[in-house]
Amino acid sequence: MEPNKDNIILSTKAPYKKYGAFFIPLISIPFRMKNLIPLFVLFLLSCGNNSSNDKPVTDQSSGIELVVLGIAQDAGFPQSGCQKENCRLYWDGKEERRHATSLGLIDHTSGKYWLFEATPDLKDQLHAVQESAGTNEHPSGIFITHAHIGHYTGLMHLGHEVMGASGIPVYTMPRMKSYLQTNGPWKQLVDFENIALQQMTADSVVQLSENINVIPFLVPHRDEYSETVGYRIETENKSVLFIPDINKWEIWDRSIVEEIAKVDHAFLDATFYDSDELPGRDMNEIPHPFVEESIQLFKNLPDSEKAKVHFIHFNHTNPLILESPERKRVEELGFKVAFEGMTLKLK
Questions:
Q1: What is the count of structural domains for the chain?
Q2: pTM for the whole thing?
Q3: Are 208 and 114 in contact (CB under 8 A)?
Q4: Whole domain around residue 49: which residue ranges?
Q5: Is 59 inside any structural domain?
Q6: Does residue 169 sit in helix, strand or coil?
Q7: For position 26, what pLDDT does the model report?
Protein backbone atom coordinates (compact mmCIF):
# COMPACT_ATOMS: atom_id res chain seq x y z
CA MET A 1 0.00 0.00 0.00
CA GLU A 2 1.27 3.46 -0.86
CA PRO A 3 2.21 5.58 2.18
CA ASN A 4 -0.14 8.33 3.29
CA LYS A 5 1.28 11.52 1.73
CA ASP A 6 0.04 13.61 4.66
CA ASN A 7 2.36 11.92 7.19
CA ILE A 8 6.11 11.95 7.70
CA ILE A 9 7.55 8.47 7.37
CA LEU A 10 10.23 7.71 9.99
CA SER A 11 12.66 4.88 9.35
CA THR A 12 13.59 2.93 12.48
CA LYS A 13 16.98 2.22 10.86
CA ALA A 14 17.65 5.82 9.90
CA PRO A 15 21.03 7.23 10.96
CA TYR A 16 21.12 10.10 13.47
CA LYS A 17 22.80 13.40 12.79
CA LYS A 18 23.68 16.11 15.31
CA TYR A 19 22.27 19.62 14.98
CA GLY A 20 23.43 21.70 17.91
CA ALA A 21 22.42 19.96 21.12
CA PHE A 22 19.86 17.76 19.35
CA PHE A 23 20.04 14.43 17.56
CA ILE A 24 17.30 13.93 15.00
CA PRO A 25 16.60 11.06 12.65
CA LEU A 26 17.22 11.59 8.95
CA ILE A 27 13.79 11.06 7.53
CA SER A 28 12.19 10.24 4.26
CA ILE A 29 9.88 13.07 3.13
CA PRO A 30 7.31 12.29 0.46
CA PHE A 31 7.73 14.46 -2.60
CA ARG A 32 4.35 16.16 -2.30
CA MET A 33 4.78 17.39 1.32
CA LYS A 34 5.85 20.87 0.18
CA ASN A 35 3.82 22.53 2.91
CA LEU A 36 5.97 20.94 5.68
CA ILE A 37 9.41 21.46 4.17
CA PRO A 38 9.76 25.17 5.17
CA LEU A 39 8.90 24.32 8.79
CA PHE A 40 11.44 21.51 8.79
CA VAL A 41 14.17 23.82 7.41
CA LEU A 42 13.42 26.45 10.07
CA PHE A 43 13.72 23.77 12.76
CA LEU A 44 17.17 22.74 11.50
CA LEU A 45 18.38 26.34 11.35
CA SER A 46 17.23 27.10 14.89
CA CYS A 47 18.90 23.96 16.25
CA GLY A 48 22.10 24.52 14.34
CA ASN A 49 22.75 27.94 15.88
CA ASN A 50 24.58 26.59 18.91
CA SER A 51 27.88 28.09 20.03
CA SER A 52 28.63 25.48 22.71
CA ASN A 53 29.64 22.64 20.42
CA ASP A 54 33.27 22.84 21.58
CA LYS A 55 32.31 22.11 25.21
CA PRO A 56 30.90 18.98 26.82
CA VAL A 57 27.17 19.02 27.36
CA THR A 58 26.59 20.37 30.85
CA ASP A 59 25.22 17.84 33.30
CA GLN A 60 21.84 19.15 34.38
CA SER A 61 22.12 17.37 37.73
CA SER A 62 21.97 19.37 40.91
CA GLY A 63 23.36 18.74 44.33
CA ILE A 64 26.54 16.95 45.36
CA GLU A 65 27.73 13.66 43.92
CA LEU A 66 30.58 11.24 44.63
CA VAL A 67 32.02 9.32 41.67
CA VAL A 68 34.33 6.29 41.92
CA LEU A 69 37.15 6.92 39.43
CA GLY A 70 39.33 3.91 40.23
CA ILE A 71 39.33 0.80 42.40
CA ALA A 72 42.76 -0.82 42.00
CA GLN A 73 45.84 -0.77 44.19
CA ASP A 74 48.62 1.73 43.31
CA ALA A 75 49.86 -0.11 40.22
CA GLY A 76 46.41 -0.51 38.67
CA PHE A 77 45.14 -3.54 36.82
CA PRO A 78 46.82 -5.23 35.08
CA GLN A 79 50.09 -4.59 36.86
CA SER A 80 53.32 -4.13 34.92
CA GLY A 81 55.11 -7.43 34.36
CA CYS A 82 52.18 -9.47 35.67
CA GLN A 83 51.48 -12.82 34.02
CA LYS A 84 49.19 -14.15 36.76
CA GLU A 85 45.74 -15.50 35.95
CA ASN A 86 43.90 -12.21 36.56
CA CYS A 87 46.30 -10.24 34.40
CA ARG A 88 46.28 -12.86 31.64
CA LEU A 89 42.55 -12.22 31.22
CA TYR A 90 43.37 -8.62 30.33
CA TRP A 91 46.33 -9.42 28.08
CA ASP A 92 44.11 -11.91 26.23
CA GLY A 93 41.42 -9.26 25.71
CA LYS A 94 38.88 -10.83 28.07
CA GLU A 95 38.92 -8.16 30.78
CA GLU A 96 39.01 -4.37 30.95
CA ARG A 97 41.57 -2.17 32.63
CA ARG A 98 40.97 -0.96 36.20
CA HIS A 99 42.44 2.36 37.31
CA ALA A 100 44.17 3.13 40.60
CA THR A 101 41.87 4.09 43.47
CA SER A 102 40.44 7.60 43.31
CA LEU A 103 37.20 9.40 44.12
CA GLY A 104 35.71 12.49 42.51
CA LEU A 105 33.51 14.89 44.47
CA ILE A 106 31.25 17.07 42.31
CA ASP A 107 29.16 20.07 43.35
CA HIS A 108 26.79 20.35 40.38
CA THR A 109 25.33 23.62 41.65
CA SER A 110 28.64 25.50 41.57
CA GLY A 111 30.23 23.42 38.80
CA LYS A 112 33.27 22.71 41.00
CA TYR A 113 34.84 19.32 41.58
CA TRP A 114 37.63 17.84 43.70
CA LEU A 115 39.78 14.73 43.40
CA PHE A 116 40.78 12.39 46.19
CA GLU A 117 44.20 11.04 45.16
CA ALA A 118 46.33 12.00 42.17
CA THR A 119 46.97 8.58 40.67
CA PRO A 120 49.18 7.57 37.73
CA ASP A 121 45.88 7.27 35.83
CA LEU A 122 45.04 10.95 36.34
CA LYS A 123 44.47 11.76 32.67
CA ASP A 124 41.69 9.17 32.33
CA GLN A 125 40.18 10.00 35.70
CA LEU A 126 40.28 13.74 35.08
CA HIS A 127 38.41 13.23 31.81
CA ALA A 128 35.84 11.03 33.53
CA VAL A 129 35.11 13.47 36.34
CA GLN A 130 34.95 16.42 33.92
CA GLU A 131 32.40 14.52 31.86
CA SER A 132 30.36 13.85 34.98
CA ALA A 133 30.63 17.46 36.12
CA GLY A 134 29.93 18.88 32.66
CA THR A 135 32.97 21.16 32.64
CA ASN A 136 36.40 21.60 31.08
CA GLU A 137 37.75 23.42 34.13
CA HIS A 138 40.68 22.15 36.18
CA PRO A 139 39.89 20.62 39.58
CA SER A 140 39.17 23.00 42.44
CA GLY A 141 41.46 20.91 44.62
CA ILE A 142 43.16 17.55 45.09
CA PHE A 143 43.36 15.69 48.41
CA ILE A 144 46.32 13.34 48.90
CA THR A 145 46.37 10.53 51.48
CA HIS A 146 50.09 9.66 51.45
CA ALA A 147 53.34 9.29 49.49
CA HIS A 148 52.91 5.90 47.85
CA ILE A 149 53.00 5.87 44.06
CA GLY A 150 49.31 5.29 43.40
CA HIS A 151 48.24 8.27 45.47
CA TYR A 152 50.33 11.28 44.45
CA THR A 153 52.40 10.64 41.30
CA GLY A 154 49.56 11.80 39.05
CA LEU A 155 50.52 15.33 40.09
CA MET A 156 53.08 15.10 37.26
CA HIS A 157 50.26 15.73 34.78
CA LEU A 158 49.74 19.22 36.24
CA GLY A 159 53.24 20.39 35.26
CA HIS A 160 54.38 22.48 32.32
CA GLU A 161 55.21 19.36 30.27
CA VAL A 162 51.51 18.45 30.28
CA MET A 163 48.66 20.65 31.55
CA GLY A 164 50.65 23.67 32.67
CA ALA A 165 48.12 24.17 35.45
CA SER A 166 48.12 27.26 37.63
CA GLY A 167 47.72 27.23 41.39
CA ILE A 168 45.64 24.09 41.80
CA PRO A 169 45.14 23.59 45.56
CA VAL A 170 46.72 20.33 46.73
CA TYR A 171 45.72 19.39 50.27
CA THR A 172 48.36 17.53 52.27
CA MET A 173 49.54 16.82 55.78
CA PRO A 174 52.83 18.47 56.96
CA ARG A 175 55.28 15.66 56.05
CA MET A 176 53.64 15.18 52.67
CA LYS A 177 53.87 18.92 52.05
CA SER A 178 57.57 18.96 52.93
CA TYR A 179 58.21 15.95 50.68
CA LEU A 180 56.66 17.69 47.67
CA GLN A 181 58.51 20.94 48.40
CA THR A 182 61.96 19.38 48.67
CA ASN A 183 62.04 16.49 46.18
CA GLY A 184 62.06 16.62 42.40
CA PRO A 185 60.18 16.52 40.16
CA TRP A 186 57.42 17.58 42.58
CA LYS A 187 59.39 20.61 43.79
CA GLN A 188 59.15 22.02 40.27
CA LEU A 189 55.35 21.96 40.48
CA VAL A 190 55.62 24.12 43.59
CA ASP A 191 58.31 26.44 42.19
CA PHE A 192 56.42 26.95 38.92
CA GLU A 193 53.18 27.46 40.89
CA ASN A 194 51.38 24.70 39.03
CA ILE A 195 50.11 23.64 42.45
CA ALA A 196 49.43 25.54 45.66
CA LEU A 197 50.05 23.33 48.69
CA GLN A 198 47.42 23.57 51.42
CA GLN A 199 48.61 22.15 54.73
CA MET A 200 45.99 20.30 56.74
CA THR A 201 45.83 19.40 60.42
CA ALA A 202 44.54 16.02 61.53
CA ASP A 203 40.91 16.09 62.70
CA SER A 204 40.45 19.70 61.58
CA VAL A 205 37.78 20.75 59.10
CA VAL A 206 38.64 21.84 55.58
CA GLN A 207 35.59 23.75 54.36
CA LEU A 208 35.22 23.56 50.59
CA SER A 209 31.87 25.31 50.40
CA GLU A 210 28.89 26.16 52.55
CA ASN A 211 27.71 22.56 52.14
CA ILE A 212 30.94 20.51 51.94
CA ASN A 213 33.51 19.76 54.63
CA VAL A 214 36.48 17.40 54.50
CA ILE A 215 38.18 16.12 57.65
CA PRO A 216 41.56 14.28 57.49
CA PHE A 217 42.53 11.78 60.19
CA LEU A 218 45.73 9.83 60.73
CA VAL A 219 45.90 6.08 60.14
CA PRO A 220 48.84 3.70 60.70
CA HIS A 221 50.60 2.73 57.48
CA ARG A 222 54.10 2.39 56.00
CA ASP A 223 55.07 6.05 56.32
CA GLU A 224 58.47 6.14 54.61
CA TYR A 225 58.06 9.64 53.15
CA SER A 226 54.86 11.04 54.65
CA GLU A 227 52.16 10.41 57.17
CA THR A 228 49.00 8.62 55.97
CA VAL A 229 45.46 9.89 56.34
CA GLY A 230 41.93 8.84 55.59
CA TYR A 231 39.15 11.34 54.94
CA ARG A 232 35.62 11.95 56.08
CA ILE A 233 33.62 13.86 53.47
CA GLU A 234 30.57 15.60 54.88
CA THR A 235 27.61 17.38 53.36
CA GLU A 236 24.49 18.57 55.17
CA ASN A 237 22.77 15.31 54.21
CA LYS A 238 25.38 12.56 53.91
CA SER A 239 28.87 11.57 55.01
CA VAL A 240 31.51 9.28 53.51
CA LEU A 241 34.55 7.57 55.04
CA PHE A 242 37.54 6.99 52.73
CA ILE A 243 40.41 4.80 53.98
CA PRO A 244 42.20 3.26 50.98
CA ASP A 245 45.32 2.26 52.96
CA ILE A 246 45.82 1.15 56.55
CA ASN A 247 48.02 -1.54 58.09
CA LYS A 248 45.46 -3.37 60.26
CA TRP A 249 42.19 -2.27 61.85
CA GLU A 250 43.21 -3.51 65.30
CA ILE A 251 46.33 -1.32 65.56
CA TRP A 252 44.43 1.90 64.81
CA ASP A 253 43.65 4.03 67.85
CA ARG A 254 40.00 4.15 66.75
CA SER A 255 37.35 1.51 66.25
CA ILE A 256 36.51 1.05 62.58
CA VAL A 257 33.10 -0.28 63.62
CA GLU A 258 32.38 2.96 65.48
CA GLU A 259 33.64 5.04 62.56
CA ILE A 260 31.34 3.19 60.15
CA ALA A 261 28.43 3.92 62.48
CA LYS A 262 29.06 7.67 62.10
CA VAL A 263 28.76 7.77 58.30
CA ASP A 264 26.44 6.77 55.45
CA HIS A 265 29.10 5.13 53.26
CA ALA A 266 32.58 3.74 54.00
CA PHE A 267 35.17 3.02 51.27
CA LEU A 268 37.64 0.72 52.99
CA ASP A 269 41.02 -0.85 52.26
CA ALA A 270 40.59 -4.27 50.64
CA THR A 271 44.01 -4.59 49.01
CA PHE A 272 44.32 -8.34 49.61
CA TYR A 273 41.59 -10.92 49.91
CA ASP A 274 43.50 -13.32 52.17
CA SER A 275 46.96 -14.26 53.44
CA ASP A 276 47.61 -16.74 50.62
CA GLU A 277 47.35 -14.22 47.84
CA LEU A 278 51.06 -13.59 47.21
CA PRO A 279 53.01 -16.86 47.42
CA GLY A 280 56.66 -16.23 48.15
CA ARG A 281 56.06 -12.75 49.60
CA ASP A 282 56.18 -11.90 53.31
CA MET A 283 52.76 -10.32 53.83
CA ASN A 284 54.03 -8.72 57.06
CA GLU A 285 56.12 -6.38 54.91
CA ILE A 286 53.02 -5.05 53.13
CA PRO A 287 50.34 -5.13 55.84
CA HIS A 288 46.72 -4.43 54.99
CA PRO A 289 43.44 -5.72 56.44
CA PHE A 290 42.63 -8.87 54.49
CA VAL A 291 39.06 -8.86 53.22
CA GLU A 292 38.46 -12.07 55.15
CA GLU A 293 39.62 -10.31 58.34
CA SER A 294 37.30 -7.37 57.73
CA ILE A 295 34.37 -9.69 57.07
CA GLN A 296 35.08 -11.48 60.35
CA LEU A 297 35.27 -8.16 62.18
CA PHE A 298 32.01 -6.89 60.64
CA LYS A 299 30.06 -10.17 60.64
CA ASN A 300 27.82 -9.29 63.59
CA LEU A 301 26.90 -5.83 62.33
CA PRO A 302 23.27 -5.28 61.37
CA ASP A 303 22.52 -5.44 57.67
CA SER A 304 22.15 -1.65 57.52
CA GLU A 305 25.74 -1.23 58.75
CA LYS A 306 27.17 -3.91 56.46
CA ALA A 307 25.54 -2.17 53.50
CA LYS A 308 27.61 0.95 54.22
CA VAL A 309 30.86 -0.89 53.52
CA HIS A 310 32.31 -0.50 50.01
CA PHE A 311 35.51 -2.51 49.60
CA ILE A 312 38.09 -0.75 47.39
CA HIS A 313 41.84 -0.57 46.52
CA PHE A 314 42.22 -4.10 45.13
CA ASN A 315 45.59 -5.61 44.27
CA HIS A 316 45.77 -7.14 40.78
CA THR A 317 45.72 -10.58 42.45
CA ASN A 318 42.56 -9.90 44.45
CA PRO A 319 39.55 -11.88 43.14
CA LEU A 320 37.26 -8.99 44.08
CA ILE A 321 38.68 -6.91 41.23
CA LEU A 322 36.86 -9.22 38.79
CA GLU A 323 33.52 -11.01 38.71
CA SER A 324 34.33 -14.06 40.82
CA PRO A 325 32.83 -16.49 43.36
CA GLU A 326 34.61 -14.53 46.11
CA ARG A 327 33.00 -11.29 45.00
CA LYS A 328 29.59 -12.93 44.87
CA ARG A 329 30.11 -14.28 48.39
CA VAL A 330 31.08 -10.85 49.76
CA GLU A 331 27.99 -9.27 48.22
CA GLU A 332 25.74 -12.07 49.49
CA LEU A 333 27.02 -11.34 52.98
CA GLY A 334 25.61 -7.83 52.64
CA PHE A 335 28.74 -5.83 51.77
CA LYS A 336 29.41 -3.81 48.61
CA VAL A 337 32.31 -3.97 46.19
CA ALA A 338 33.20 -0.63 44.63
CA PHE A 339 33.32 -0.35 40.85
CA GLU A 340 34.46 2.36 38.45
CA GLY A 341 31.68 4.73 37.49
CA MET A 342 29.75 4.07 40.71
CA THR A 343 28.01 7.25 41.89
CA LEU A 344 26.51 8.27 45.20
CA LYS A 345 24.22 11.24 45.73
CA LEU A 346 25.34 13.17 48.79
CA LYS A 347 22.73 15.90 48.52
A1: 2
A2: 0.81
A3: yes
A4: 1-54
A5: no
A6: strand
A7: 40
